[in-house]
Amino acid sequence: MLALGRDPGTVLPDREASLLSGGEGFDRTAAQLRGVLRLARSLATLEDEQTLLQMVASTARSALGYSVCVIALRGDDGNFHNRASSGLQVNDRTVRTLVVSGPAFEALTHASIALGGVHWVPPGHAVRDREDVKSAILATGVSVPSRTWQPGSLLFAPLVGSDGKAIGFINPDDPLSGELPALDQALMLETLAELTVVGLEIVRARATERAARAVAEAQRTQLEVLMRASARVRGDIALDEVLQSIARAMTNAGGFRRAAIYLLVEGETLEVRATVGLDVEEDEALRSNPVTLAEFAPAMQPEMLMSRSYFFDHRRFSIPAELDAKLNTPAPDPDWEEGDWHAEDMLTVPLVAISGEVLGLISLDEPNNGLVPDRAHVQALEFFAEQCSTAVQHAREFEVVRAEAQTDALTGLANRRALEGAIRRAMDRFRDRGEPATVLFIDIDHFKPVNDTYGHAQGDVLLQWIGGVLSDRLRKNDLLARYGGEEFVALLGDTDVEEGRVLAESLRERIAALDSAKFSGNLPVRISIGVAGLPRGLLSPDEVLAAADAAMYEAKRRGRNRVCVADEAHPPAVGVPPIPLTGGQDS
Q1: CA distance 129 to 107
Q2: Which of 178, 463, 504, 517 could pair with 529 in a Cys bridge, judged by C-beta atoms 3.0 to 4.6 Å apart?
Q3: Is residue 139 classed as helix, strand or coil in its secondary structure?
Q4: Burial (CB count within 10 angstroms: exposed 0-12, middle 13-18, buried 19+), residue 44
Q5: Domains of the chain, first to last
Q6: Higher pLDDT, 569 or 430
Q7: Is the pTM for the entire model greater than 0.70?
């Protein structure tokens, strides 16, 4: 919404005089009509909403004789947002940030004088004192000395949809005639507004048709991807693989070059689990910087809604530096033009389950056509997101079932099945790339007296405590499993036997140094450990475990509370002398 100069407080022309002013030359009217007709003919080929709006703004200047024109459309938030402008001498970003609220628009319409289907608000009207009106007005200069047009006048032609409600408005300013529009001029502006509404309906229908076509063309591929994902979900497949398939389908069908899928963890943290179109460094940067839902909130404000998704328009919003650092925003294109997608723009499509639970977000960037997506395009993306949500739920449910099948119920550690699979994969890496791995077979010394003296419930507490202490001392990529009874097995990746022996000794010393009285009564807790590397013969996981188990029993035979290494003629035993215990036979 624009205003010319300051309110001068001059005497207003009466309405009748203003309607008859401005000249009546047939040639001028004919020239204006030709300009409007050129715009009408262009509707046969226009495909893009932004291009249409820019052409309408230019036509208001070149054909109807205004030096400035701004066009605003009503957003999903009910407010009117500037979408196109022509002839302004101020920064376009400033114009884009001006928003006419729904109540302010209604107040201006009610206060205006009707010039046919066009509305004029005199400069001295009290409505101009409303704060929401003041914040929406931008002052411009005057090109022609004023006659009946008074500085500070507001002129707008509503864009009325088929339901009779305003979907936007055309705001021409600074008439080159220096006069308010006469009846014929007001009718020409009203015709331009009607033509704009028709044009919007046409380009939006075409966009919807294109989106429907894209959905139809991509649906078969999308369904195939989802069917394959569903089939894999029913088998042995990780959630991340399902998400990666979905990310590829989203970009292939959705028309974006870059995509990242965030999953919501524990209701507050967003973790990147799949990306498309990012290089290795960008992918690692996003994955290593989880974002809380509160931190991401500035990119998902109600005023950003486009259908059910959120469009972060860099011209209207600024992203906090902390969030920007975690989003890996690319460098802006120096040749960026109005209507093009900007590097700081962002489209976020929520992943929402049928139950309404928010599962995560899909962040999309760099549309293939380089343009800001329209509502129909976004709705097509939301169709895919609905399919994604179902697949994600199924994959999550499968991962829970699989985790339960591979987790020891008492300690929460991996169980024997998970351990054997991990050793098999380590053997494959050893065979293919020569990557070493070492197995530690760990047994709690004198565990039976704890059960016999204090009961199995206390023995279970001791097992949980030992499992936690061992886990805390291992590295991130190591695997600790409960093998059975009081036995634990650690698989150390990319570790040779000597490194494994050193780590085993540190585990033994750690357990021996801790005060275990509250877990085992007055019975001290110690562990014996057998160490075995992967065999050159690439035998089965059972044989690797058997070698480590034999080394562990050698440690017990030599006095317990020791570490022994397998496959040596005289296995070295290290540690301290055993502590004599009473109360039963060792387990």
Answers
A1: 11
A2: 504
A3: strand
A4: exposed
A5: 2-203 (3.30.450.40), 235-405 (3.30.450.40), 416-575 (3.30.70.270)
A6: 430
A7: no
